[in-house]
Design a protein that fits this description.
Keywords: Endoplasmic reticulum, Hydrolase, Membrane, Transmembrane, Transmembrane helix. This protein is an all-alpha fold and 431 residues long. 71% of the residues lie in helices and 1% in strands. The protein is globular and about 60 Å long.
Length: 431
C-alpha cells in the first residue's frame, strides 16, 4: 500500500487544481446548471401534490374530530420527524464525534469525521451547482423546529444532505462493526441491515413530510450517498494510513508532510467550490467541516502513537469504565468550547493583519465590523511589493471574505483540541 499512499496525494491535488482552472476557463458551473436546473425544478413542482398528500391527514374524518385529530397528528409527526432530523444533522455529529474519540474508538471517529467532511462538500457542491429550489411554501407546509433547520431551508434542495449523510455515516458505522466484531450470525446481521434501512427510509419520509425536500431530492440524496459510501470503502484504508504516517519520506516532496498536504487540499477545495445562483449558507457549512477535518488530521498525525493507536482503552473496558468516561466528557466539552471561542478571537485579530500585510483585499460579512461593506485593498496600495505580495498577486484580484478564514481556523482549533489538547489533559488527570 506504500506506493498507493505516495501517489494519490499528488494526483488529488493536481486533479482539483485542474478542475479549478477548467471550471474557470469554460464556465462549467453555469453550463451544468443550465442542463440540470430546469429538469429538477419541473420535478420539484410535479412532486408538490405528493408532498401535500404525505402531509395530509385522514380525509374520511369529519367535523371537530378532524381538527382535533389533525392537530394531534401533526404535532406528533412534526416532533418525531424533527427529532430524527436533528439526530442526523451536522450539529449533532459535531457534538457526537468528540465523544466517540474520547470513548477509545479513534479510528472510527476520524474516519467518520473525514467522511462527514467529504459528504458535506460533495452534497453542498451539487446543491449549489444545480441551484434547484425546495418545495414551494405555501402550498407546502414547512416545519423548521430549530435554528439549524431554518438555516437549512435557506439552502437549495437537491440532493437531501440529511439522506446523503445518513446513508454514508450509518453505512460506515455498520461496516466498522461488522469488520471489527465479526462473531455474529446471519440473523444479527440481517437485523442490523434492516434497522439501518428503516432509519434511512424514515429520514427520507421525514424530509418530505417536513416540507424540506421533494421526492427527487430524497432519491438523489440516497443515490449520491450510496456512490460516495462505495467510493469511501475503496479509499478509506489509504486515507487512514496516510494520516497516521506523519512525515512520509517516500513521497517525492521530502518535506511535504501530512499537515502541508491537508492545508493545500483545504485551500484548493475552497477555490474549487462552485458559485451558487444566489448566496446560500452551504459554503459556510463546508468551510466549518473543512476546518474540522484539517484540525483532526493535524492533531492525529502528531499524537497518534500517544492517544489514538489501536490499543488505547475503550469504553466499558476495565481501563475505561463508564465513570471515567463521564469525567472525560465533563472535562472535554467545556475545554473544546473554550478553545473554539479563543480560536475565533485570535483569528479575528490576526487574519486581517496578515491579509493587509500581504496586500490581499478583504471584506467581512459578519465577524469584523470595521471591514463590512468595504475592502482593505486601499490600505495596502502604498506598501512595497515583496516576494509574498507577488505570489498573492497571482490569485484573482477581488475582495475575499475574511470570515471564511476565520471560520476555518475556529473549527480547526476546536477539532485539534479534541484529538490533541484534551487527550493530553486526560493524561495529566489520569482520566
Amino acid at each position: 500500500m506504500e506506493g498507493g499512499v505516495s501517489f494519490w496525494p499528488a494526483l488529488m491535488l493536481s486533479s482539483i487544481l485542474g478542475w479549478v482552472v477548467a471550471s474557470s476557463l469554460f464556465d462549467l458551473t453555469r453550463r451544468v446548471r443550465a442542463l440540470t436546473q430546469p429538469w429538477v425544478t419541473r420535478r420539484v413542482l410535479a412532486d408538490t401534490p405528493s408532498i401535500l398528500r404525505v402531509q395530509d391527514f385522514d380525509p374520511n374524518s369529519e367535523g371537530f374530530l378532524v381538527d382535533s385529530q389533525q392537530r394531534f397528528h401533526h404535532g406528533f409527526l412534526d416532533n418525531m420527524f424533527s427529532v430524527l432530523s436533528c439526530g442526523v444533522s451536522v450539529p449533532f455529529y459535531t457534538g457526537f464525534l468528540p465523544i466517540l474519540f474520547w470513548s477509545g474508538h479513534s479510528k472510527l471517529a476520524r474516519q467518520m469525521t473525514l467522511l462527514m467532511a467529504f459528504c458535506d462538500y460533495i452534497g453542498n457542491s451539487i446543491k449549489d451547482v444545480v441551484s434547484a429550489p425546495r418545495p414551494s411554501c405555501p402550498p407546502v407546509r414547512r416545519v423548521t423546529a430549530t435554528e439549524d433547520e431554518k438555516e437549512n431551508a435557506m439552502e437549495y434542495g437537491l440532493p437531501s444532505s440529511h439522506c446523503l449523510n445518513t446513508v454514508c455515516l450509518l453505512g460506515y458505522m455498520l461496516h466498522y462493526v461488522l469488520a471489527h466484531y465479526p462473531q455474529r450470525d446471519g440473523i444479527d446481521i440481517a437485523i442490523w441491515f434492516g434497522l439501518v434501512f428503516l432509519f434511512i427510509m424514515l429520514i427520507g419520509v421525514g424530509r418530505v413530510y417536513l416540507g424540506m425536500h421533494s421526492l427527487i431530492d430524497v432519491v438523489a440524496g440516497i443515490s449520491f450517498g450510496l456512490v460516495i459510501f462505495a467510493f469511501w470503502l475503496m479509499v478509506h484504508g489509504y486515507v487512514d494510513e496516510f494520516i497516521i504516517s506523519g512525515q512520509n519520506e517516500s513521497y517525492f516532496f521530502i518535506c511535504f508532510s501530512v499537515t502541508y498536504f491537508w492545508a493545500s487540499l483545504s485551500l484548493l477545495l475552497s477555490f474549487a467550490y462552485p458559485n451558487p445562483e444566489l448566496p446560500t449558507p452551504s459554503f459556510e457549512y463546508h468551510t466549518a467541516f473543512n476546518g474540522v477535518a484539517f484540525g483532526i488530521v493535524t492533531g492525529i498525525q502528531q499524537t497518534y502513537l500517544h492517544y489514538h493507536h489501536d490499543n488505547v482503552p475503550r469504553i466499558f473496558s476495565p481501563q475505561l469504565p463508564v465513570a471515567v468516561f463521564v469525567g472525560r466528557v465533563l472535562v472535554g466539552i467545556p475545554t473544546i468550547l473554550i478553545v473554539k471561542f479563543c480560536s475565533k478571537a485570535i483569528a479575528k485579530w490576526l487574519l486581517p493583519i496578515v491579509c493587509n500585510t500581504l496586500g490581499v483585499p478583504i471584506v467581512s460579512s459578519c465577524y469584523v465590523p470595521t471591514l463590512k461593506g468595504s475592502d482593505s485593498k486601499d490600505k495596502s496600495d502604498g506598501k512595497q511589493s515583496g516576494y509574498l505580495q507577488k505570489l498573492v498577486a497571482l490569485f484573482p484580484q477581488k475582495a475575499y471574505d475574511v470570515d471564511t478564514g476565520i471560520r476555518f481556523l475556529q473549527y480547526a482549533g476546536l477539532a485539534w483540541s479534541v484529538v490533541d489538547l484534551v487527550p493530553s489533559i486526560f493524561s495529566h488527570l489520569n482520566l
